[in-house]
Amino acid sequence: MLDKQEAKKRIDDLVEQLRTLGHAYYVLDDPIVPDATYDQYLNELRELEEEYPDLVSAHSPTQRVGAEPLEGFQKVQHAIPMLSLSNVFNEEDIRNFHRQVTDVIGEDVTYVCELKIDGLAISLIYEDGAFVQGATRGDGTTGEDITSNLRTIHSLPLKIDAEGTLEVRGEAFMPRASFLSLNEAREEQEEALFANPRNAAAGSLRQLDPKIAASRNLDVFLFGYGEWEQENLPTHGERLNYLESLGFKVNSHWKECSTVEEIISFIEEWTTKRAELPYDIDGIVIKVNRLASQEELGFRANNPRFATAYKFPAEEAVTTLQDVELSVGRTGVVTPTAVLEPVLIDGSTVQRATLHNADQIKELDVRIGDTVVLKKAGDIIPKIVRVVEEMRTGDEEPYTMPTNCPACKEELVHLEDEVALRCINPDCPAQLQEKLIHFVSRNAMNIDGLGEKVIQQLYVEELVQTISDLYHLKKEDILPLERMGEKSASNLIAAISDSKDNSLEKLVFGLGIRHIGAKAATILAKRFKTMDALKDATFEKLIEIDEVGEIMADAVVQYFEADQINQLIDDLKDAGVNMTYDGPAEPENTNHFLSGKTVVLTGKMDHFTRKEAQSKIEALGGSVTGSVSSNTDLVVAGESAGSKYERAVDLDILIWNEEQFLDSVGE
């Protein structure tokens, strides 16, 4: 038997050996020892760790599935937003993208083209080489902590040779072979099948029990990083090589291109070859290679100007229209949906497709029993594009939209020259349920555990008929519901209670005011501060806001004129729902030096966290970005400032230390 010192040395040696062998097997797909040898080392390590549990390290391969099931997922704020990419669909779009790039940085530009993996975007954080946190992209600003599930992916290293904090970004996915095996097993158990590998990967990484994620054989490709103070590489291509040198799995099918023609050639190659890959891709990512040029190009509100994604043309399939079903949305719009003979398209089985409205049915001349051509619009939503009239037999039946609501039987109407048919009955049960589903959704009040099926049960059992009823639910009310255990019921009641503290913009969006999306709700909440002030806002006051047009202003005024809405607001107040805006404040001083300035924060500060400093700057009318470019007005450099400081010096940008920043903000 080894003593403790000898055991520690042997454990360290085994962890390093298994790390090397695992990298060769899972990342390079080139095993260097038989599987039995790997298993032998792993078993020896397990035995030593059981004997000396205090010597178990977080990056030991035995700890990939070491966590207990979670109660729920914690929220994670991304230090730098994980923005989505704009899309291009053809050669003309690609040439326009190239023209927009060269108009800013000149003709001397190269691009890196990469395969666009069809999976789930993830962020990984390493502290001094140890993997400490993994998160989903979420809405780009806030994701979910899925660290325990990501640790189960063998191609993801738990330890790398890098100092400081390094945030790596990539895509988690499910290989096709794993997807087929998973669905075969689910079919045997008479469980619902996953539609495609992307959905299967996302569902696996959102399991509360890491052992389930571990059983799904997920994989990962890394392609960049968010924030890293020690960044000193000049190109994206060198970033990819560096990530690979650290032991990360990087997709090898990338290419540096100097011309649009080379980009198009790369796209054509992989449009043909993508079926040969063991995983799904849905396009090609095109990025400006030089990082300084990326910084110069900067960002739009929702995506970078230096990158775009070419989306593969949607696949088409032929099937039979079996029926048309109607659904009623929360605003009363009645939408027809085609019920189809199941058909495989773009890797998933499709049985339903949108028909939008009566005009589209008439334009397509689609009939029950028709043979139709189906495609996925934007690779996501199935859509009927045409009828194969040559295959008609004469037995097909024309379809006519009804004149009464399928849910409440009230007469349907056309409003304001709309194409859509609409039910205007405020007591329509279908609308009420859809409004409840919208109210509890993630971008609205974000009540975990209140999914569509639970809402439907609550409505059918007459436990919830209006939004305010949610806040009067008791644990004993929901315990009898299907699949509702003691723990689930407690968590749901707690989540409903927690939602009372949401900032006003969440409530405004959750109410479902016509033409008011999440962004508009935030603008209104920030401007008016309280629900009462928003309710009292006149049309003239609303259109003073730059982002609010006449249609939106009219919709807000009309919404709050209804007596039942005012009663709903009063009921929510009585239930303790917050009616004030708690988010970042409007600029306090538009005459301050920082007003209108673009600021970058770097290094460690003694008096502020990064978030507190950002709030101070925004309150004074400035904005904070994550990278230094020619558009940066000021860099605030704390202790151990890194490459951003050096970049600011190179560009001759104003640099403040923390004391200067404190003086400026009056502290």
Structure description:
- With 667 residues, this protein is of the alpha+beta class.
- 36% of the residues lie in helices and 21% in strands.
- Strands 12, 13, 14, 16, 17, 19 and 20 form a 7-stranded antiparallel beta sheet that branches. A 5-stranded mixed beta sheet has the order 2-11-10-3-9.
- A hairpin with a 7-residue loop joins strand 19 and strand 20 (421-423).
- 32% of the residues are buried.
Based on Cα principal axes, name the global outline.
globular
Total beta strand runs: 24
> Could you tell me the strand content as a percent range?
15-25%
Rg measurement, Å: 28 Å
Largest sheet: 7 strands, antiparallel
- According to CATH, what is the topology of the largest domain? D-amino Acid Aminotransferase, Chain A, domain 1
Termini distance?
62 Å
Question: What's the average pLDDT?
Answer: 87
Structural class, from helix and strand content?
alpha+beta
CATH architectural grouping of the largest domain: 2-Layer Sandwich
CATH superfamily of the largest domain: DNA ligase/mRNA capping enzyme
> How many separate domains make up the residues?
6
Total count of helical runs of at least 4 residues: 24
Low-pLDDT segments: none
Percent of residues in helices: 25-40%
CATH class placement of the largest domain? Alpha Beta
